[in-house]
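[09:14] KT: can someone run the structure on this one? pasting the chain below
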Amino acid sequence: VLNGDYSVARRRAIEDAAGDLGYTEWFLSKDHLIVGDTVRSRKALNSCRAGNMEIPEGVIVGQDQNGSALVRVHGIHDPVRVHMLRLERVSHGLASGDCVRLKEEVMDKEKTKHSPVGILHSIDRDGSVTVGFIGMETLWKGNSSHLQMAEAYSVGQFVRPKPGILSLRFQWARRRDGEWATGRILRVYPNGSLLVKFPGLLMFGAEEDTFVADPSEVELVSFHNSPGIVKKYRHLEDFHWVVRPAMIALSLFATIKFGSFVLGRSKRRPPHGKESQTEAQSQQRPVIEAVVEAANGPGWLPRQLRF
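[09:31] RB: done, structure tokens below
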């Protein structure tokens, strides 16, 4: 009965973790953690970037029959209880799912045309690794010493080709001015390639609206790394093609309203001659009043100058 209850509980835990993280149940059930392993919270599928992890890094110090592990985390006094399906093992500073780059000396030795950036599929405790690279039909096998961490991308981020790259591995959309367009990542494939969509471009007919990108050829685009107000506005246009016509319409509306305001004020102002005459009379009045007071009364003044 206990074994049956454990199987049901483990099955339910696998289904919950698979639904939350996006992995298959087979993938989650094949990794076996033991006491002494360095672990961290498992990243979500289609993402090389670690989010807000409950366990940034810790060491398993105990396990229970329910499939949970007690993890010792630096800075926390008591071990943290986490289900092992939500943890991934870290060996030699790397974990399955990391974005990695093959070192230059290894690339030069292999003399291959595959991308230097890929996804780490597995890493054993002895440092043996398998990596998926664009341009290879099978997983690359080697040692963790041949790899280094690469720029991590995740779904929802914006990317564009790096400056200076004239020829890309795959096709890429361009803006109206001929420059490379900025696209949004829809998916990260197991070999590291990125599926990119261009919401800032209005596509017609049978035009392709999604493209595949080599992660080694692109760079991240955000408001933070876009210098100047012009670059930031251009990045705003990358979110949707309707931004540009909306801004043009808003500018025209503001211009019309401002013109109406100026025209209305000019109509309410008095004619130039009357305004000058009124100002002259207002300037002469204090002088006349002073003369009247000096004469101690207005009796000596002509009738037309009396007040």
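[09:33] KT: thanks! Residues 1-6, 295-301 have pLDDT under 50 and may be disordered.
[09:34] RB: yep, looked fine to me
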